């Protein structure tokens, strides 16, 4: 099989992994070295696929042969797909050749599980080691690890990679038992715990002056939405726990997608992509806007409204908090106004010290007036409290059904 | 009216603007354009700047913004920048840059944003083609890019840093950048792509592009908002977009109609067997008496599967005892903390470090001691972005007690050191208070010698004044186990 054929199989096999971000690495470049590469913090999307997702990394599997039988996965042993495997040398060459042409920011390497967790991890780590040590590659590397891999191998992965991740896949053990019988929530959490300890220690050493230390700066995970009956509350509660306990940089929500070799125990239909989008929005509110999961969802309503963004939904449930005077409201209060993002809140805080805020100021900051108007007071706008109490508000603010065009990537 | 030639760059504009400010020429009296020779004999000679260092002092935020705005292709940018400068240095609006909603500031910020976006797109969409190698093996690459703004100079340092060890040129109609034999050079723009032979890797890159696309999620609008059509003609993969989009509904329909595949039996494989063994459900007896004749290993396996109280659910895993199972001394703490929960071992966090230090000072070797906790799962409550340690409730201590008793009976230590109220409550009952009964306590059902002292996390919390004396007292308590008095 030639390289082109292998690539078509092993990139196809990797495309269901949502994460492709190349952000958050320590700054470095190739000056003074012998190879290529730099990382700058923000990450660059070098292309976009027609599915709207960005292409930032060469995302491939080392092999799509797999012992496991996760039913949502095209590479599971029950699947009838063509199998292929890259040699380490091939994966290294492809990364370097693409990188030098400025097609990519680096490599995202995952693998089906062949023989054992450790055997597989060794192969994956070997590619990263070759890139770093033989070719002095200073671009981005993201390695997928396996919870059962030995701590020594995970430690090595962290040494060569910028980001490491372990996919949680489903938020509950019951879900895993049914759809991914070889996976285990407790073991995944334990592996994430060990990784966090390693990342913390490395960060301490760096702060302590060990500037030369090259080490991953974060871990992330992915969950599949809509493959089992888990509610949005299940997903958000699990994410909240993971962010807190393991300091994940990011939880990726990937709407379960039809695959060419569907399994007989999967749901017949894919979930609406909007659900994935709403989860990203809710996740964002938890991480950057100070919302707790219980404010976003309740036991009676454990799923996000597909028609209303979660911040607006919260504001409509809590109308008594509004309208807020932008001249005097606290930052935390302002962050809860629908239509105001973190950046604009901080800008407004700066501006209001120097001048009185008016609607025109908001317009020039490109804040959507129809969206914020009912919730705010500024010098030339005092909405009647009654306006907030009418159901017309909901009718006015609930968007007409629009084509979804935002993905997690766009939210980054 | 003053007609002033702003030149092509921030530097030339700045020189002109400084002169105008020095001569008190208000913005309304300046036309920023290159003089047409038939109307003007020559460009106006501007008076040299006056004052300290010659230049009016402006906030760094303005200079930074102006440098970026200067790269924009809009000819009105020079007038806008001069207006801003004037308002800041002559109009008394020293803090103008902080008012992002001011019409001029908002306009300048928008232009700057366009420029930054274009620089970002240059970093993203420049596609190098390999055209050969130098004699020393240095590879040579060229690229063609068509930016909307004058961004080549601002965008080039990125490529120097990233591709320091290759030779490359980026040709654009608005300036070219070259890095050849470690020399950097900027040259004027060229109107056509000087190299239109494709690179062999382009075919493989297109294969990648085709394969990484998920036809079940076609989203052309989202794609175009990030990769506008004007860039497509220089991206080798872009002409696949049409074909892939056209096929996508057929491909996803075909997937949906594919007959479902039955589950395949697991192959015989030692690794899978081992996984199954690890995941096998463990029966945890309700009655502690039922664990009476199990080994410590078996007990610990059950602890990991224990659901006797709700604490297991939000912890990483159980933290069982650590140390030789025939240890002469056993230490019982309260419950694992954040770090212990992550590592799965007792006393590895800050309190554990302090304990280690105190043990060493008391002449005790931790490696010979069996260390465990009264409660095996970490109890926490959310606070900010953290997990905040919470004291276990009486019911939780009670629920976990059988495991502690099992450990106690297997290790059968001669000496037990109880750290803090939770450990004391578990083994001695709630009537025993550390403050009152500190030191050696009589509890023959626990061990022949039982020592009660504070938990080291108390020493971390106690105020500075008492820290030292409390610590000395703690070490003294531990010494009671060292055989001394
Ligand atoms: S282990 Fe499961 S998730 Fe991983 S590749 Fe194999 S089948 Fe897919």
TrEMBL record, chain A:
Pfam family name, one: Radical_SAM
Cofactor dependence: [4Fe-4S] cluster
Coiled coil: none
InterPro entries named among the record's database cross-references: Aldolase_TIM, DNA_rSAM_put, Elp3/MiaA/NifB-like_rSAM, Endo/Exo/Phosphatase_dom_1, rSAM, rSAM_sf, RuvA_2-like
Annotated ranges, domain Elp3/MiaA/NifB-like radical SAM core: 56-281
Keywords of this entry: Iron, Iron-sulfur, Metal-binding, S-adenosyl-L-methionine
Tree of life domain: Bacteria
SUPFAM superfamilies documented for this protein: Radical SAM enzymes, RuvA domain 2-like
Protein name: DNA modification/repair radical SAM protein
Phylogenetic lineage: Bacteria, Pseudomonadati, Verrucomicrobiota, Verrucomicrobiia, Verrucomicrobiales
From TrEMBL, chain B:
Family matches, as InterPro entries: DNA_repair_put, DUF4130, UDG_Type-4/5, Ura-DNA_glyco_family4, Uracil-DNA_glycosylase-like, Uracil-DNA_glycosylase-like_sf
Domain of life: Bacteria
Ranges in a coiled coil: none
Keyword DNA repair: yes
Residue ranges constituting the Uracil-DNA glycosylase-like domain according to the UniProt record: 320-479
Pfam families linked to this entry: DUF4130 (PF13566), UDG (PF03167)
NCBIfam families tied to this protein: SAM_7_link_chp, UDG_fam4, UDG_fam_dom
Family: Belongs to the uracil-DNA glycosylase (UDG) superfamily. Type 4 (UDGa) family.
PANTHER family linked to this entry: TYPE-4 URACIL-DNA GLYCOSYLASE, TYPE-5 URACIL-DNA GLYCOSYLASE
Protein known as: Type-4 uracil-DNA glycosylase
């Amino acid at each position: 099989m030639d390289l082109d054929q292998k690539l078509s199989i092993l990139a196809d096999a990797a495309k269901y992994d949502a994460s492709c971000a190349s952000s958050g690495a320590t700054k470095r470049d190739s000056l003074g070295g012998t190879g290529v590469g730099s990382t700058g913090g923000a990450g660059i999307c070098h292309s976009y696929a027609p599915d709207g997702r960005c292409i930032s990394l060469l995302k491939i599997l080392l092999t799509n042969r797999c012992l496991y039988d996760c039913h949502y996965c095209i590479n599971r042993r029950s699947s009838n797909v063509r199998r292929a495997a890259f040699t380490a040398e091939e994966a290294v060459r492809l990364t370097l050749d693409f990188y030098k042409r400025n097609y990519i920011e680096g490599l995202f390497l995952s693998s089906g599980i062949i023989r054992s967790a450790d055997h597989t991890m060794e192969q994956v780590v070997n590619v990263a080691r070759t890139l770093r040590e033989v070719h002095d590659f200073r671009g981005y590397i993201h390695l997928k690890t396996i919870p059962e891999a030995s701590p020594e191998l995970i430690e090595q992965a962290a040494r060569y990679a910028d980001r490491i991740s372990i996919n949680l896949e489903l938020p509950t053990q019951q879900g895993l038992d049914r759809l991914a019988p070889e996976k285990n929530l407790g073991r995944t959490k334990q592996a994430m715990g060990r990784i966090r300890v390693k990342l913390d220690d490395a960060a301490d050493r760096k702060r302590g002056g060990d500037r030369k230390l090259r080490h991953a700066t974060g871990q992330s995970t992915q969950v599949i939405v809509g493959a089992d009956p888990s509610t949005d509350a299940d997903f958000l509660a699990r994410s909240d726990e993971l962010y807190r306990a393991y300091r994940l940089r990011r939880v990726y929500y990937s709407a379960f997608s039809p695959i060419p070799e569907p399994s007989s125990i999967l749901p017949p239909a894919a979930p609406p992509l909007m659900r994935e989008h709403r989860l990203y929005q809710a996740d964002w509110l938890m991480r950057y806007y100070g919302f707790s999961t219980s404010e976003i969802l309740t036991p009676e309503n454990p799923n996000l409204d597909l028609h209303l963004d979660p911040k607006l939904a919260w504001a409509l449930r809590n109308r008594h908090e509004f309208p807020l005077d932008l001249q005097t409201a606290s930052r935390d209060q302002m962050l809860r106004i629908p239509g105001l993002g973190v950046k604009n809140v901080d800008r407004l805080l700066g501006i209001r010290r120097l001048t009185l805020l008016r609607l025109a100021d908001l317009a020039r900051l490109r804040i959507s007036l129809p969206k914020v108007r009912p919730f705010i007071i500024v010098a030339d706008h005092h909405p009647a409290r009654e306006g907030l109490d009418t159901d017309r508000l909901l009718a006015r603010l609930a968007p007409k059904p629009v084509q979804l065009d935002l993905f997690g990537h766009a939210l980054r | 009216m003053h007609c002033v030639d702003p030149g092509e760059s921030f530097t030339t504009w700045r020189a002109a603007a400084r002169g105008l400010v020095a001569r008190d020429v208000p913005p309304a009296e300046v036309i920023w354009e290159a003089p047409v020779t038939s109307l003007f004999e020559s460009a106006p000679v501007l008076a040299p700047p006056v004052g300290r260092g010659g230049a009016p002092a402006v906030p760094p935020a303005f200079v930074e913004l102006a440098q970026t705005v200067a790269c924009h292709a809009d000819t009105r940018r020079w007038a806008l920048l001069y207006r801003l400068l004037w308002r800041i240095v002559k109009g008394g609006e020293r803090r103008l840059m902080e008012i992002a909603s001011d019409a001029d500031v908002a306009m300048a910020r928008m232009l700057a944003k366009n420029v930054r976006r274009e620089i970002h797109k240059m970093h993203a969409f420049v596609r190098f083609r390999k055209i050969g190698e130098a004699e020393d093996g240095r590879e040579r690459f060229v690229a063609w890019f068509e930016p909307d703004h004058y961004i080549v100079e601002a965008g080039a340092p990125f490529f120097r840093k990233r591709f320091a060890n290759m030779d490359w040129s980026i040709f654009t109609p608005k300036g070219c950048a070259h890095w050849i034999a470690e020399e950097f050079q900027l040259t004027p723009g060229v109107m056509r792509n000087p190299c239109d032979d494709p690179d062999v890797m382009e075919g493989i890159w297109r294969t990648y592009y085709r394969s990484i696309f998920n036809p079940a999620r076609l989203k052309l609008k989202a794609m175009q908002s990030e990769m506008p059509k004007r860039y497509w003609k220089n991206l080798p993969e872009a002409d696949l977009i049409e074909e892939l989009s056209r096929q996508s509904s057929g491909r996803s329909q075909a997937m949906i109609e594919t007959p479902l595949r039955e589950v395949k039996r697991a192959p015989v494989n030692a690794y899978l067997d081992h996984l199954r063994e690890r995941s096998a459900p463990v029966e945890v007896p309700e009655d502690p008496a039922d664990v009476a004749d199990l080994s410590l290993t078996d007990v610990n396996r059950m602890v990991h599967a224990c659901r006797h109280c709700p604490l297991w659910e939000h912890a990483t895993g159980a933290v069982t005892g650590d140390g030789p199972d025939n240890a002469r001394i056993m230490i019982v703490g309260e419950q694992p903390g954040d770090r212990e929960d992550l590592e799965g071992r007792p006393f590895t966090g800050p309190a554990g470090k302090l304990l280690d230090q105190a043990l060493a000072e008391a002449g005790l070797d931790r490696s010979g001691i069996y260390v465990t906790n009264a409660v095996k799962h970490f109890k926490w409550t959310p606070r900010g972005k953290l997990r905040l340690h919470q004291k276990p409730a009486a019911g939780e201590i009670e629920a976990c007690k059988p495991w502690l008793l099992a450990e106690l009976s297997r290790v059968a230590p001669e000496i037990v050191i109880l750290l803090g109220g939770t450990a004391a409550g578990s083994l001695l009952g709630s009537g025993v208070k550390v403050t009152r009964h500190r030191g050696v306590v009589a509890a023959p059902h626990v061990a022949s010698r039982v020592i009660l002292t504070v938990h080291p996390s108390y020493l971390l919390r106690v105020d500075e004044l008492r820290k030292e004396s409390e610590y000395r007292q703690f070490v003294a308590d531990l010494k009671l186990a060292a055989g001394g008095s």
